[in-house]
Write a structure and sequence with these properties.
Elements lengths: L1 H12 L10 E14 L23 H17 L12 E7 L2 H8 L2 H4 L4 E4 L9 E6 L4 E9 L14 E8 L2 E9 L7 H21 L4 E7 L7 H6 L2 E2 L10 E2 L2 H6 L5 E3 L2 E3 L2 E6 L15 E7 L20 E2 L2 E2 L9 E8 L2
Length: 345
């Protein structure tokens, strides 16, 4: 109990200097592509054969346990730069096989110590990978959950990952988080533009029902911030001043232009892992009101242990496997985190 009180005290005081006499609470919201968090058992009707003990990755219980340990380390540290000992209130994840994996993940010591729970709905992806939402129940309370399907249209003609939608309360405000893993680059640009348009329709519907609802769209978009799916499909803008009613804000656009990304390809960086937000999350006029959850900053979570330290791929994300070799790494993506502030009443 004493540790919980200390953590909550730190949460309130982290931005005290900004508050001009008011107390502000800080909340971390993150996203991480876990790169194939599979268990060692076959799931019926899923093409998970690579991740079985006799599969191409020779996926044993030992490797699975290492993967759980590695993922839990990252997730527990995400957000602790600004919130030591507390971390993120909400973390979206992708490329997780099933609820069994999520149960095992949340049971890892560093996550269990904070009481993390998860939201997951089994999706139609043939490989069996889904999105999920981890949350700390001390700060976030889920109230309604659904999986918005990806409506099929050329060039995607078979069931694929839907959009996990979780509504709840954070800091006393109503918030909706939509966790995505959009079609791969091999599917072509139209498939992801169509994903962006579908998610935007969902966002608009949510805001039409409750204009004060804070809406975050997060995930591995398989596109950069300036690509059509994000810029046109989701209407996510680069600059806060350009966010008009009906638009969203994308803080990662400028971060990528500054040379920072979350995955490396052919010597360059991409930033597919993004968290974008509805206009009502922004302090566009600079009033510093903070009476509701207000966007503060966005960061790529980067640690030396997440990166290759030598060789041809030095300073790129250290994967679980590469070239058929088990590296006991983490993911081919780096995680991201956003921070929001709110006045304590």
């Amino acid at each position: 109990m004493r540790k919980q009180l200390i953590s909550l005290f730190c949460l309130v005081l982290c931005l005290g200097a900004m508050a001009q006499g008011r107390q502000l609470a800080l909340y971390g919201i993150g996203f991480y592509n876990l790169e194939n968090l599979f268990d060692t058992q076959h799931d019926e009707d899923k093409n998970d054969y690579e991740f079985l003990p006799d599969g191409s990755y020779h996926w044993t219980e030992m490797k699975y346990e290492h993967k759980l340990h590695n993922m839990s380390r990252v997730l527990s540290e995400l957000g602790t730069d600004q919130l030591p000992g507390i971390g993120c209130s909400i973390i979206g994840v992708s490329e997780v096989e099933n609820a069994h994996c999520l149960t095992d993940l949340c049971a890892q010591e560093v996550l269990a110590a904070r009481g993390y729970q998860f939201v997951h709905i089994e999706g139609p992806d043939k490989r069996g990978v889904d999105c999920a939402l981890l949350y700390n129940p001390r700060f976030f309370v889920p109230k309604k959950v659904w999986l918005q399907p990806y409506v099929l249209r050329e060039p995607i003609t078979r069931p694929t990952r839907g959009f996990l939608t979780v509504q709840g309360t954070l800091g006393g405000d109503s918030i909706t988080v939509i966790v995505c893993h959009w079609p791969s680059r091999f599917s072509g640009d139209p498939a992801r533009v169509w994903a962006g348009q579908q998610v935007k329709v969902e966002v608009d519907s949510i805001l039409a029902a409750n204009e004060s609802m804070k809406v975050l769209v997060m995930g591995d978009m398989n596109d950069d911030p300036m690509n059509n799916s994000m810029r046109e499909g989701l209407r996510a803008r680069r600059k806060m001043k350009d966010v008009m009613p009906g638009d969203m804000f994308n803080p990662w656009w400028q971060i990528l232009l500054d040379g920072r990304g979350t995955l490396s390809y052919q010597g360059g960086w991409n930033l597919f892992d993004q968290i974008v937000m509805s206009r009502n999350c922004l302090d566009i006029g600079g009033t510093k009101d903070y009476s509701t959850l207000t966007f503060h900053k966005a960061e790529i979570f980067r640690r030396d242990y997440l990166l290759q330290q030598e060789g041809r791929y030095k300073n790129t994300p250290k994967r679980t496997h590469a070239g058929g070799v088990w590296l006991d790494g983490y993911s081919d993506h780096l995680p991201v985190v956003t921070y929001f502030v709110r006045q304590v009443k």
